[in-house]
Write a structure and sequence with these properties.
It comes from Colletotrichum melonis. By secondary structure, the protein is mostly beta strands. The chain has helices at 39-51, 169-175, 460-464, 475-482; strands at 4-5, 10-14, 23-27, 30-34, 60-64, 72-73, 78-85, 91-92, 95-109, 114-126, 138-139, 145-152, 195-206, 221-229, 251-256, 266-272, 278-279, 290-300, 310-323, 341-346, 348-354, 358-365, 371-374, 380-386, 394-408, 420-421, 425-437, 440-448, 450-451. The chain is 7% helix and 42% strand. A hairpin with a 4-residue loop joins strand 9 (95-109) and strand 10. The protein is elongated and about 100 Å long.
C-alpha cells in the first residue's frame, strides 16, 4: 500500500474578536477545540520570516502529474506527483510529511465573532524513504530536491470518522461514504463559503530533534495543492415523506378565480411524486435526463364552470447546503429540521406534455346499487352512485388532466456534486415546479437524487499493485520517527 490513513478530528475556532475563553470538548471520537486566532498576526509573522531570511512557502511546491484546472478525480483515482524543495538558504530539517487531506469546514458568523469548525475527513500518509533525503539532512541553497508521492483516493472513510451516536445505521453508512468536494470547481457548484469540503495534497517539512517527545512544532516549510473530487454515490430508494417533512411540497391546492376580485370558480390541485434519480457521468460534465409527472384535478363550483388552461411556468433545481457545527444524528432534509442555505438554477426543459381535460360526471340517485357508464373515451366519464335518502338528487363534476415535464441539468455551466450526507455537511437537491392555472400558481417542491456510479475499468486493487509497498520504501522506519509526534498532526 502507498499510504496510511489516520483518524479524523474536529476543531472549531473563532477567527475574529475572540473574547470567549479557549475550550475543548471530546465528542465520541471527534475532538472540538476552540481557540482565538487573528489573521493579522499570522500575516505579520509571515512578513517577519521574510525579513529575517527564514524559508517560506515558496521554497516547497507540490506538483500533481497530469493535473489541470478542470480535472475531476474520483474514488480509486491515482493522485501522484512530486514535492520539490528549493530553499533560498541552507535549511536543516528532520523529515518531510506528505498527506492526502480531506476536510469539512463550517463557518458561522455572529455579531462579534466568526466560528470556524473543521473536521478532518481523510488523512493519508505517504511514507518517504530515507533514500529520498539528502544524507546530511540539509537542504542546500539553490539545489532542487524531488520527493515522489502517490495516493489512491479511497472509496470509504475509516470507521473512526463516525463514532458518535446516530439514530439509524443508515445515517452512519452515509456518513462513512466519501463526500464530494464543495467549492473549488472550475464551474459553479451552487455552494457557499459557509460550508466547504476540500481535498488537497499537502507537503510539510519539520525540523525536530531525534528522540524528542514534545508535540510537533510548526512546519518550517509547507505547501498545498487542491484537487476536486466527485465521489461515487449509489442510487438510494425514494424518500418516504409525510406531513412532517416541511422541506417538500408534493401536493398543492389553490382556488381558481377569473380575477383577483371575483369569487372562486372552483378549486384546483396539483400532485406529484419523486422523479427518477439523475445519473452523472464520471467527470460530471454530463447527466441523464429525468421526468416529473403531475396529476391535476379541478372541482368547479357550478356544473357550467369550465376548467382553466394549465401551463408550466418554470422548473428549477435547488441545491440545498446543510451545515452544522456538530455531527448530525439524522438526515437533515427529512422531518422538522433546520433550514439549509439554498441556491438555484433553472433546469433545461426538454419537453412538456399536458393531456386534455377529462370530465368526470358523478350522478347521485336513489337505488339499490350504483353503476358506471362510459362516455367518450378520453373526454368524459359518467358514474352513477347510490344516493342516501337524506341527500338530494344532483350532479357532481370533476375534471382531471396530467402533465409530464422532461428536464435535464445545465452541466455546461454548473457542476452538481452527487447527493451526500457527511458528519457536518450534506448536499441534497429539490426540483421546484411552478404550475399556473386560471391565475392560480401551484408551487411543487420535489426531492430529486443525483447519483454517480463507480467508474468501470481498472480497480483500486489493480492500481495499488503497481505501486511500491509500505515495506519496500522503508515505511516502518520512517513511521518510527513520527510515532511520538503524530497526535499533533
Amino acid at each position: 500500500m502507498t499510504a496510511n490513513q489516520a483518524g479524523s478530528n474536529h476543531r472549531s475556532k473563532p477567527s475574529a474578536s475572540a473574547f470567549r475563553s479557549s475550550a475543548s470538548a471530546a465528542l465520541s471520537g471527534g475532538i472540538f477545540n476552540e481557540k482565538g486566532t487573528m489573521r493579522a498576526i499570522g500575516n505579520k509573522m509571515m512578513s517577519m520570516t521574510k525579513l529575517i531570511g527564514m524559508p517560506t512557502r515558496s521554497d516547497v511546491e507540490v506538483h500533481v502529474d497530469h493535473h489541470y484546472t478542470s480535472k475531476i478525480y474520483s474514488a480509486g483515482s491515482q493522485v501522484s506527483g512530486t514535492v520539490k524543495v528549493n530553499t533560498q538558504q541552507d535549511t536543516a530539517f528532520g523529515f518531510v510529511e506528505i498527506n492526502l487531506l480531506g476536510k469539512a469546514i463550517v463557518r458561522r458568523e455572529d455579531v462579534h465573532v466568526m466560528t470556524e469548525t473543521i473536521q478532518t475527513l481523510l488523512k493519508l500518509y505517504m511514507p518517504v524513504p530515507e533514500s529520498a533525503y539528502p544524507s546530511t539532512r540539509l537542504f542546500r541553497r539553490g539545489h532542487t530536491y524531488s520527493i515522489p508521492f502517490s495516493f489512491i483516493i479511497p472509496h470509504q472513510l475509516t470507521s473512526n470518522v463516525c463514532q458518535y451516536e446516530v439514530q439509524t445505521e443508515a445515517v452512519r453508512h452515509h456518513h462513512l461514504r466519501l463526500p464530494s468536494s464543495l467549492t473549488g470547481f472550475e464551474k459553479d457548484d451552487l455552494a457557499t463559503s459557509m460550508a466547504k469540503i476540500q481535498y488537497s495534497v499537502r507537503a510539510r517539512v519539520f525540523n525536530i530533534d531525534d528522540g524528542s517527545t514534545v508535540q510537533l512544532p510548526a512546519p518550517i516549510l509547507e505547501s498545498e495543492h487542491p484537487i476536486s473530487i466527485l465521489a461515487p454515490s449509489p442510487e438510494d430508494p425514494p424518500l418516504i415523506l409525510d406531513k412532517h417533512d416541511l422541506h417538500y411540497v408534493l401536493e398543492s391546492t389553490k382556488p381558481v378565480r377569473k380575477n383577483i376580485f371575483s369569487v372562486p370558480t372552483g378549486q384546483i390541485t396539483a400532485k406529484t411524486s419523486q422523479p427518477q434519480a439523475i445519473r452523472l457521468s464520471s467527470d460530471g460534465h454530463a447527466a441523464s435526463s429525468s421526468s416529473a409527472y403531475i396529476d391535476i384535478a379541478f372541482w368547479p363550483t357550478a356544473p357550467d364552470m369550465l376548467p382553466p388552461q394549465v401551463k408550466i411556468k418554470s422548473t428549477s433545481i435547488l441545491a440545498q447546503n446543510w451545515a452544522s457545527t456538530r455531527p448530525a444524528q439524522i438526515f437533515p432534509n427529512v422531518g422538522v429540521t433546520r433550514e439549509p442555505t439554498t441556491l438555484s438554477t433553472p433546469t433545461i426543459v426538454n419537453a412538456t406534455n399536458i393531456t386534455p381535460w377529462i370530465q368526470h360526471v358523478h350522478i347521485l340517485e336513489d337505488g339499490e346499487s350504483g353503476r358506471t357508464k362510459g362516455g367518450n373515451r378520453g373526454s368524459r366519464d359518467i358514474t352513477v352512485i347510490r344516493n342516501s335518502s337524506t341527500q338530494d338528487d344532483g350532479v357532481s363534476i370533476t375534471y382531471t388532466c396530467s402533465t409530464q415535464v422532461d428536464f435535464g441539468l445545465p452541466t455546461s455551466s454548473h457542476v452538481f456534486p452527487p447527493t451526500f450526507h457527511s458528519c457536518l455537511i450534506s448536499r441534497t437537491y429539490t426540483l421546484e415546479i411552478k404550475v399556473t392555472a386560471g391565475g392560480a400558481e401551484l408551487p411543487l417542491l420535489v426531492p430529486v437524487q443525483i447519483f454517480k456510479e463507480q467508474e468501470s475499468g481498472r480497480s483500486q486493487a489493480s492500481t495499488e499493485s503497481e505501486l511500491p509497498s509500505w515495506d519496500n520504501v522503508g515505511g516502518e522506519a520512517v513511521y518510527a520517527r513520527l510515532r511520538e509526534h503524530r497526535r499533533a498532526l
